[in-house]
Amino acid sequence: MIGALYANLKRPPRTAAEWTADAVRAAAILLVLVSLFVLPATDTAVLSMALPAVMLSRMLGLRAGLDLLTCVTVIVAAGSNVLDLYRSWTGWDLVVHAACTGVLAAVALVVLDDSGVVPRTGRRRTPIVVATTAGLALSAVWEMVEWFGYRFITDSIFVTYDDTIGDMVAGGLGALVVGILASRVRLTRGDRAAL
């Protein structure tokens, strides 16, 4: 598995979308490095949380468009927190939760499928159920992280019951949409190294 992840990571980009995804990935790394010197530590920590997703999408060999979408979405999600857009733009929180949970559910679906956790049944319902379940689980974990941050790090994190439930519903819907798409479209490149 590690060898396949490394093979996908070192594969040179071939299409414009792959080059663009790699450029966005490099910008994300640079952004985190710069933030170390110009932003508070909490903002740097938030931005750095995007890095595993932008790297994993490349290492898994996601299709170029999905790879790019994943990179942009997680960077926008982290940046929206740093720029305080969740408080200033009504409804932005729900849009980002749906989109970000959706792309992360796609990543989870590929990981679970490749690692054999999810049996290859060939049924079109399987990606729908697995992606939605993964998205709801990721939403729950994220809300726990928000609560922990609010409770033990800073009270500037916005946490209410309605916000938590709304975020989880939006995330679950985003994951459901990805599951439906994944039941019809391949999420990975055809030439990737299989895990």
Residue runs with pLDDT of under 50 for 5 or more positions: none
Number of strands: 0
The number of distinct structural domains comes to: 2
The main β sheet shows up as: none
Number of helices: 9
Approximately how much beta-strand content do the residues carry?
Answer: under 5%
What is the percent of helical residues? over 70%
Helix and strand element order: HHHHHHHHH
Which of globular, elongated, flat, extended, rod-shaped describes the shape? globular
Q: Please compute the radius of gyration using only Cα atoms.
A: 17 Å
**Overall mean pLDDT score?**
91
Distance between the termini: 5 Å
Structural class: mainly alpha
Protein name: Membrane protein DUF2238
Keywords: Membrane, Transmembrane, Transmembrane helix
Description:
- The protein has 195 residues and is mostly helical.
- Helices cover 74% and strands 0% of the residues.
- It has nine helices and no strands.
- Helix 1 crosses helix 4 (51-59), helix 2 packs parallel to helix 5 (64-82) and helix 7 (92-114) crosses helix 8 (125-152).
- The protein is globular, with a radius of gyration of 17 Å.
- The protein starts with a helix and ends in a 13-residue tail after the last helix.
